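Annotated sample (chain length 164).
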Amino acid sequence: MQKNTSALLQTYLQYQGSPFSDPGFSAPELQLSSLPSAAISFKIWHALEDGERLNRAQGAFLALTQHLQLVGDDQTDLNPDSPILLAQLGAARLRAQGLLGNMAAIMTALGLPIPPEEDTLGLVPFGASAFERKCRGYVVTREYGHWTDRAVRDLALLKTKYPE
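Output written by the structure step:
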């Protein structure tokens, strides 16, 4: 799964043109207020309770499924002749939905409440320029990779803690 997130980001950047497709492109300062960042220090992450870790991941993947749909819609408009990119975005959205289901099952098994689904996107600026939509897609695909890495780490910790 982690390999797929890296491939998605690289494919996404390739289809956006310069500056996105330039070698070494990175813009860590770009963020979306509607998408939680996965960045957290190891010390803080390690101190979180299992329920809090799962709750944060659940909220992030709920937001990611909605954002990945939006990015897919944007790319259908911006890059209609890119079936590889569109298929990867669709697959990423399905994987994010699958992780949501897995986390909900784990939370239920641990006796934790499942947070209600929310509209994390709110009002989307439909008049956004092509560049703004490309930036939004970059942030979403990048954060999808970071959250996936974090979820894999979280789930591995839970598996060790609760073997069966």
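Annotation: Helices lie at 2-16, 42-47, 50-78, 83-109, 130-161.
Annotation: The chain has a mean pLDDT of 91.
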